[in-house]
Design brief:
- α1 links the parallel β1 and β2.
- A 5-stranded parallel β-sheet has the order 2-1-3-4-5, with helices on both faces.
- It is flat.
- The chain has 457 residues and is an alpha/beta fold.
- The C terminus is likely disordered.
- The protein has 4 domains: 130 residues, Rossmann fold (3-Layer(aba) Sandwich); 173 residues, P-loop containing nucleotide triphosphate hydrolases (Rossmann fold), CATH 3.40.50; 73 residues, Helicase, Ruva Protein, domain 3; 47 residues, Homeodomain-like (Arc Repressor Mutant, subunit A), CATH 1.10.10.60.
- The chain has 20 helices and 14 strands.
- Helices cover 48% and strands 13% of the residues.
């Protein structure tokens, strides 16, 4: 919006500066004047501008000096230079150095307004594009991986070092641990990020179709091939191909994949010739490929080709300190998908219980459980009873003090949770619980009525 844009007008002839300021101000812009290059450079350091309108020919510090300072201060700041007809050659040189546009004197004021408006629009579009790229990077890059435990910090450091390489990477980890997120982070943080990231699960397709899916086929190559298909290698050309669960690839296809890695060429099913491809290969497996190589179920030469760099994704049970952050994130995601759910948070004892569960399905299992709690929850806060109701696994008992570990919990809340825990330990016998707590049984009844929202009379 013009009213939010600030423009710096630079001209060593003050009357020219004033002549430009008035129509720009009338158009809704905030305008600052500078009567020399040195003063303009000082103003650029002191304030943020959206456009600079600067005379090219000035004594001592000229427009090219101002342009250079503006580029150092903000490489995307549009600088429009004003020049006399005889100095067009200098203006062209300024364009080579990064000026956004130049105006030849004498010019019309509506021409100035037109180019200022275009410069602002270009700056806005660049900012939107930059924000979009940042959001995509957050979703697909390191920002998509959550956790600050020691195993995850180690993994982040390795991803940061490996991303810039062209070497194949073998990502190892249990099912549901986040291997594809690691692969996407390697792609997004590396030089191939503008190019495609293509993923295929080697177990998701019948073996007969996997070759066609990877390498493509020509029309009529086999029964049902009614059209030509490029294949995933060509779709990923210039980018990254992620082969998930590579350990399940059939032996005959392993040989063809090895040939592609060696020659950099793919041959579609039924084709007479090959086509060159430039693809970085990332592979993942939950299996012990070393053992499968020894058993003769996976080619040793392909294994060595893929295992240039190996990354291990830790299972959730090795980074339980990340569970509170993960659970909070999954609640927010589930609420966005289920806006009618009343659930807003998990009780502290629920989070503490989640941290003590075994999680054989890792992060994916935790995400699915949180989604179930949000979808089926009937109250804003999911309590331990609801957790036990909606999970098939044995829920480990958690003492209220353990639930409060690592966070500040109001004393009244902790007191109520402890009373409820003791009552549960006594099989619901409140008289016995009161004896153990050293309080009157009426105190327990009163706390229950208060906690359930029943007003006391």
């Amino acid at each position: 919006m013009p009213s939010s844009a600030r423009i710096l007008v630079v001209d060593d002839h003050e009357e020219m500066g004033q002549m430009l300021k008035e129509p720009l101000t009338d158009a809704g812009y905030r305008v600052d004047l500078s009567t020399g290059g040195a003063d303009a450079i000082a103003q650029l350091r002191a304030r943020v501008y959206d456009v600079v309108l600067c005379d090219l020919r000035m004594e001592e510090v000229d427009g090219l000096d101002v342009l250079a300072a503006a580029r150092r201060h903000d490489p995307e700041l549009p600088v429009l230079l004003m020049t006399a007809f005889g100095a067009v050659e200098s203006a062209v040189e300024a364009m080579k150095r990064g000026a956004w546009h130049y105006l030849t004197k004498p010019f019309r004021l509506d021409e100035v307004l037109l180019h200022v408006g275009r410069a602002l629009e270009a700056r806005r579009l660049k900012a939107e594009h930059r924000d979009l790229k940042r959001q995509v990077a957050q979703r697909n890059g390191l920002g998509a991986l959550l956790g600050h435990s020691v195993p995850m910090r180690t993994l982040y450091e390795l991803i940061d070092r490996v991303a810039a390489s062209e070497a194949p990477v073998l990502i190892r980890g249990e099912s549901g641990s986040g291997k594809e997120l690691v692969a996407r982070a390697l792609h997004s943080e590396g030089p191939r990020s503008p190019a495609p990231f293509v993923a295929v699960n080697c177990t998701a397709l019948p073996h007969a179709l996997l070759e066609s899916e990877l390498f493509g086929h020509i029309k009529g190559a086999f029964s049902g091939a009614t059209t030509t298909r490029r294949g995933l290698f060509l779709e990923a050309d210039g980018g990254t191909l992620f082969l998930d669960e590579i350990g399940d690839m059939p032996p005959e296809l392993q040989a063809k994949l090895l040939r592609v890695l060696q020659d950099g060429e793919v041959r579609a099913v039924g084709a007479d010739g090959s086509r060159r491809v430039d693809v970085r290969i990332l592979a993942a497996t939950h299996q012990d490929l070393d053992a499968r190589v020894k058993e003769g179920r996976f080619r040793a030469d392909l294994f060595y080709r893929l295992n240039v760099v190996s990354l291990r994704v830790p299972p959730l049970r090795e980074r339980t300190e990340d569970i509170p952050k993960l659970a909070e994130h999954f609640v927010a995601q589930a609420r966005a998908r289920n806006p009618r759910s009343p659930v807003t948070t998990l009780a502290p004892e629920v989070v503490a219980t989640l941290a003590r569960m075994p999680w054989p399905g890792n992060v994916r299992e935790l995400e699915n459980l949180v989604e179930r709690l949000v979808v089926l929850g009937a109250q804003p806060t999911v309590d331990l009873a609801q957790l036990k109701l909606h999970t098939t696994d044995a829920v480990p008992e958690v003492h209220p003090l353990a639930a409060a570990h690592g966070q500040v919990v109001p004393l009244r809340q902790l007191e109520g949770e402890y009373i409820a825990w003791v009552v549960a330990r006594c099989g619901g016998n409140k008289t016995r619980a009161a004896e153990l707590l050293g309080i009157d049984v009426s105190t327990i009844h009163r706390r229950e009525r208060t906690d359930s929202g029943v007003s006391q009379r």
